[in-house]
Amino acid sequence: MQMIAQTPKPPYYAVIFTSERTDGDNGYSKMSEKMMILAAKQDGYLGVESARDAIGITISYWRDLESIKNWKENVEHTIARQKGRSEWYKSFKTRIAKVEKDYGFEKE
Amino acid sequence: MQMIAQTPKPPYYAVIFTSERTDGDNGYSKMSEKMMILAAKQDGYLGVESARDAIGITISYWRDLESIKNWKENVEHTIARQKGRSEWYKSFKTRIAKVEKDYGFEKE
Hints:
2 copies of one chain form a homodimer.
Chain A: E1 12-21, H1 28-40, E2 45-52, E3 56-62, H2 65-73, H3 75-88, E4 89-106
Antiparallel strand pairs in A: 1-3, 1-4, 2-3
Helix pairs in contact in A: 1-3
């Protein structure tokens, strides 16, 4: 179940991944779930948020640039990213951003 | 139609707004559309990306912190944000982040 990520006090980092999918599942759902579980085990992982309708947006939060780099170099993740280019995505954009400030609201 | 935003070369800023909606529309869709149009007219606006399923994620991109501040202080936007707290959102989180790096992919 997707929720708002419970991230610590800034600063920390966000990897914003925005994508347009190709038609059909082509093994995407299974791999996506696998990557979510694997990412959560990485050192420096802080949380993830994801939503999709016409486009998909997945934001993963990380302690620092070092933990983002380590996750990018993870072998299983690298294979998944290659499948992303060949099978699942028509186009995507990845943005690495430093969260400087955050605030929230919750109804009582 | 939601698309991947065509943002300039970093650095620039992202306002990441993640939310859980209350039940029903309650005037949300009309106001949301109005705010998208109004935001796009602001100085420093660079684009927006949005998707919703279990949670909603809307990311607006801005030239600098000054343009984010001006948009936050816009009177119509301030009224819409108040309605957000009273009517449309169970909870939300806003994160202000500096995009340091980006890269993309597009199928030929």
